[in-house]
Amino acid sequence: MSAARASGSRWRLRAAQLRAFAVRYAGRADGMIGLVVLVFFGILALAPELFVGPLETATRASAHAFDAPSAQHLFGADDLGRDILNRTVHGARISMTIGLMATVITLVFGVVLGLVAGYSGGMVDNLLMRVADFFLVLPTFVLALILAPVLIEVVGADAEVMGIRATLLVIIVVIGITSWAATARIIRSQTLSLKERMFVDRARVVGVGPGRIILRHILPNVMNLIVANAVLTFASAVLTETTLSFIGLGDPFQPSWGQILNGAQDSGAAGLGAWWVIAPPAVSVVLVILAFTLMGNALDDLLNPKSRVRR
Amino acid sequence: MSARYLGQRLLQAIVTIAAIVLLNFLLFRLMPGSPERILLRNPNLSQQVVEATRARWGLDKPLIPDQLVSYIGSTLEGDLGYSFKFRGQPVTSVIADRVGPTLLLVGLGELISAIVGIAIGAYAGWRRGGLVDRVGSGVSLVLYSMPYFVIGMPLIVIFAAGLGWFPTSGMTSVGGGDRPFPDNIIDLARHLALPLATVSLGLIGQYSILMRSSIIETRSEDYITTARAKGLRDGRVLRAHAFPNAMLPMVTLIAINLGYVIGGAITAEIVFSWPGLGTLTVTALQARDYPVLQGIFLLVAVSVVVANLAADIIYGMLDPRVRR
User: Fold this and answer.
1) What is the DSSP letter of A183?
2) Please, what are the domains in chain B?
3) ipTM score above 0.85
């Protein structure tokens, strides 16, 4: 009875905190602009078929090569006569899905290793942070460049998991491998200070095990940092994916925005003055990265105790 | 700066480089298919020839320690193996041919963006909330969100394809490098203009954003209040007191960025077919020329580590608080 009441009041407390946070977030103009842009591209990504029909391929092209924008094809067509609007809207789904999955992998690695390093301290901490430093110093993008083809060769380019082709999975994993270290550092430093707090000592004294302390007492208190960090990680994941695809490591059968720009580069669209092939995917990429950066900065100011002190 | 601090940094850099060499070694042995299967694809080769080749390349010995030791040995000697694509050419000479154009492009880009970015950031931070701050910060944030190719492609559409002011690609016109003195430089400059603008624009955001926040942080320091209380003019407080101190984090950023000069602007080079390391990376990637890829990774990684070390040392010399 009393336990039920306690958990009920805890939920009410959480809901109230969330409401208060939403009000403060709504006061941030930059954060709200970011949110609107994100919702727009999120809706496109959820159901691209609804807006522009199925993805146009070389055989399903509906226009002629390099058709300029017209009433029928708002953004014209590329070198194979494929409608650019169609491909950009479909690209939203692929770019955002890869960005999301890469962010999840980065966070899982970063948060788990950060918590373990911070809580256990000593040798484990030392070792994990040395490895993290190594990955922080490494030129991430060049490492991603050589990791991707090696991994593609290991798993085979035509393998498929849950409808996502291996080349894209490799990009997701590569982004995860090369960007977990920053997250781990942030989570570790917060864990270090949390584990000295009284409530953790109390839990330890009554005999709660380390796993349970990390899950029940430390994790909820670093949630703020994780959320703010996730949004910024997403921005850089989309950026890395776009660049890797642009360089030719993407999958032509599941075109992301970077892949569409790769096609534009290979067909020499820029030199031909065919701006309509470049502008839609390029503007989309910049808007999404900008939106997440704005949201991330707003969240960081509101949620990160360190940056709040500085204001 | 104490010798202990210096020694620690030095040791860290050496361990990191050793780890990079190890990673380079293991990564390319992860791949399915042994090197002889890739290189000796001819099915008619007799077993004896294959055995003899394996012995000659040392592939019959265990991976660790024998192969690793000989790999480290030849890496230290500057032998990075032979390119698959450029048959018979050693990796070092393939890479050396491409270093110059990249250094020219990214080095100049770093210089321009550092000067312009620091100037904009310092002024924006000093007059926080003013017109320069609002416009400059917005533009910086947008530029910061743009990968090089998203900057470069519109530049080609407008200034090369549209207005025809600059060539679309390459570093020289056909025969342009052989013309007499002023003409060949002018030819190079015309080809350099757009890629250089791309790299500079791509880097400015980073510098101006950091400089702005650094100036804002410095502005609230006590010694700035003291300088104002002494009755110094606003411009002098900025130039003589705020600016030098706010430059501390910038020095670190510039030093670290110098490490990325080598591998920095891969996509900018691709967009303009600039014959540097970036285009070489992609050529090697498409041909799955692993020795060249390995060599580029090693070069970039080592220069980044060295630049980081330099940044630490410079910072230690400039900021007395670090001299532990």
Assistant:
1) H
2) 3-76 (no CATH), 94-322 (1.10.3720.10)
3) no
